[in-house]
């Protein structure tokens, strides 16, 4: 199985690659369109700002390619947010618009933003991506922006407000947390993705 991690120059991709290699995957970090098209699975990790990530994808001519991908594609943290219609980060940043849902800054009158650390998920819909994962399993989060609950949400998390922590739309999958930092639960989710 050929696994591609899209190189956005916006995150520590080597940690994701190490995790996949540990699971026995042949993993390549690349922005080569031909390799991306020929892959069996795609991962789009990201940290930082939506604006910076979208500029990198545009510079590399990857925006339309990602939108047209038919193989299972997993967005992680910022990568999931990029699947939305736009982010209100930096006033307004157009994103991939794969899912017609905006990404907005989190708000809580009592809790610190960004949302950092362990939090649990509540599963709304059964899905193969969540096999072996139960309600109240904990994952590691680090973000200031989020997607509200919407038609693609299969699990959500509460942090001052409910937000989408796992989404599925056609061949696109998204997680707001960091699987690599999420111990057993994160590894189980990646295993599930690889089996889809």
Automatic annotation (TrEMBL):
The gene is hisH. One of its GO terms (cellular component) is cytoplasm. Residues 10-194 form the Glutamine amidotransferase domain. It comes from the Bacteria. It catalyses: L-glutamine + H2O = L-glutamate + NH4(+); 5-[(5-phospho-1-deoxy-D-ribulos-1-ylimino)methylamino]-1-(5-phospho-beta-D-ribosyl)imidazole-4-carboxamide + L-glutamine = D-erythro-1-(imidazol-4-yl)glycerol 3-phosphate + 5-amino-1-(5-phospho-beta-D-ribosyl)imidazole-4-carboxamide + L-glutamate + H(+). InterPro entries: Class_I_gatase-like (IPR029062), GATASE (IPR017926), Imidazole-glycPsynth_HisH (IPR010139). CDD domains: GATase1_IGP_Synthase. This is Imidazole glycerol phosphate synthase subunit HisH.
């Amino acid at each position: 199985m050929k696994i591609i991690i899209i190189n956005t120059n916006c995150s520590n991709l080597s940690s994701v690659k190490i995790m996949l290699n540990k699971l026995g995957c042949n993993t390549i970090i690349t922005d080569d369109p031909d390799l991306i098209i020929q892959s069996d699975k795609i991962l789009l990790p990201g940290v930082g700002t939506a604006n910076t990530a979208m500029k990198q994808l545009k510079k590399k001519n990857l925006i339309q390619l990602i939108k047209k991908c038919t193989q299972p594609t997993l967005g992680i943290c910022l990568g999931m947010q990029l699947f939305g219609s736009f982010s209100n980060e930096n006033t307004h940043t157009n994103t991939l618009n794969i899912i017609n849902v905006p990404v907005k800054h989190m708000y809580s009158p009592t809790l610190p933003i960004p949302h950092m650390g362990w939090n649990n998920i509540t599963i709304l819909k059964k899905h193969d991506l969540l096999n072996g994962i139960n309600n109240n399993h904990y994952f590691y989060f680090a973000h200031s922006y989020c997607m509200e609950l919407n038609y693609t949400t299969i699990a959500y998390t509460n942090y001052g407000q409910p937000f989408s922590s796992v989404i599925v739309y056609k061949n696109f999958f998204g997680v707001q947390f960091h699987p690599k930092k999420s111990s057993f639960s994160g590894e189980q989710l990646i295993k599930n993705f690889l089996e889809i």
